[in-house]
Amino acid sequence: MSIDPHGTPASISCGEMARSLEPFLDGEFEGREEAELSRHLSECEPCRTLVEREARARSRLRAKLREAMGPGSPAGTAPAGLQERISAALDREARPARRWAPWPVSLGAVAAAAAGVMVVLATQGGADPLIDEAVRKHARDLPLEVNAASVAPEAIPGLLASKLDFNPRPPAFRAQGMKLMGARLSQLRDRPAAYMRYELPRGQVGLYIIDDPDQRIGGGGRQVQVGPSTVRMVNARGYNIAVWRRNEIVYSLVSDLDEADLVRLVETAQAAADR
Amino acid sequence: MFDRTADRTRNEFEALAVKHLDGLYAAALRLTKNQRDAEDLVQDTYLRAFRFFDRFERGTNIKAWLFKILTNTFINRYRRSVKERSLVDGPEQQAVQERVISREATDQAENPEQHFIDRLLSDDVLEALDAVPIDFRMAVILADLQDFSYREIADILDVPVGTVMSRLFRGRRLLQKSLAGYAVEAGVLPPGPTGERIDLEEYRRKRNSGA
Predict the structure, then answer these.
(1) Residues of B with CB below 8 A from A82's CB?
(2) Per residue in A56-112, pLDDT tens?
(3) In the CATH scheme, what is the code of domain A105-274?
(4) How many domains does chain B have?
(5) ipTM of the complex
(6) Cα dihedral sign for B109, B113, B116, B120?
């Protein structure tokens, strides 16, 4: 909007000028409003002094903020690696179609796993609260909401899926005498999870299936390469637990098997997943 | 075929969004106050933005959109764990102001020119900023560091423009006083006239009816 130079634009009082100072300096006024204020400033020295002083203070503050956390400052620069980390997360997000593609694994590790040799990748200490919770809940032997006696085992994941926002597809274990007993909805560290209980010739195992798209679960335990997966082996409260990931899904298998038997069990599922 | 479409979307998203990484991280660091949470917050922000990218109107302000997602993600996921509640009103804010700002610092902050600010170290500036209650801190960061307009800040924080003005006004004032506090500690000096705020809507109505 333009001003009629011959008209008499409403004049502004010094009080109004002072009260408009902040938005004026922030560039919030345009057109006529801005022109009115500027006109007042051109005619009123005390206000001009006030505005100029405040403008200097403002730019001093802004300059200091930029120096402290603006572009190029340590507090204003994303750490090295963050962009790559985000890119990798976006890759996983962008390619649901490749969900079950095998993970890149060194040939040596595959060969060693096939030969039944465990390749230990790393060992990390520290209790994992997720595993601790998984063991406690497994040990409490809570009732199963869906029972394999009344529902076909193949239908169980679908029943749970309707209550979860992911599909809790269990790995296809190929172990002699292993039977799915039933399942229930669970929660681990405030995340919805599916829990499935299996019967083995000796004892039981509990499998947790947790959706973890942003990879918040991890760390702790001894890392072992089993087929295409890196499996974390943890011993807690007398149970051996194997934790592994398939893209966005984390599996946590709580068992009273000894470690070698547990690894073999996980291995049967890895082999099946690769078919 | 599917993958190619996905790649295109992905490339478009990255081309638009990645250049705001540093700015988002800087804001995230002041919100979470530690590097690890700040990195997680920024990563979550990008993932959510990507998931909702189809709802982003092409050609509109992606920077403001990303900051809005950052703010919402922080409130939903991190704020509780940081144990930092809104201190906008009431006695809590009073307490914060009194704790952060000594009498002496308040007097110094009334000085007209703020030369003392030039002599502060960046670490002091960041500490002074972190001492400002979070809602005010965020308004100052969005306005004075990211150069968003009142309207954009209102959209990002999901509050009316009047609230933005009031948070910004009080946030800058609190920051000046907080800085003065650090300046006094460091043996340095301060200023700032205290103008009252105006109600922008009211102001405009009056101006327009008068014309």
Answers:
(1) 21, 25, 39, 42-43
(2) 988 989 999 999 999 999 999 999 899 999 998 888 776 544 333 333 334 444 444
(3) 3.30.200.100
(4) 2
(5) 0.75
(6) positive
